[in-house]
What does this fold into?
Amino acid sequence: MKSVSAKLVLLFAACALLLNFPVLAIFNRAATLGGVPVLYLYVFGLWVAGILAAFLLARKPWDGVA
It folds into this structure.
């Protein structure tokens, strides 16, 4: 269990770093992809990826599954 919590802390730190100003400034362009600004796609894509990663790390395995 301790390694799972360490991985979740690392995931939080990575997401906090990737959602900080210097990295966000890279995606703050006038370009759009499918009519949606690239910055919005980056933020929401990272948000969904973070939630999915936290779900996969925090879920408990079924009984009998290694």
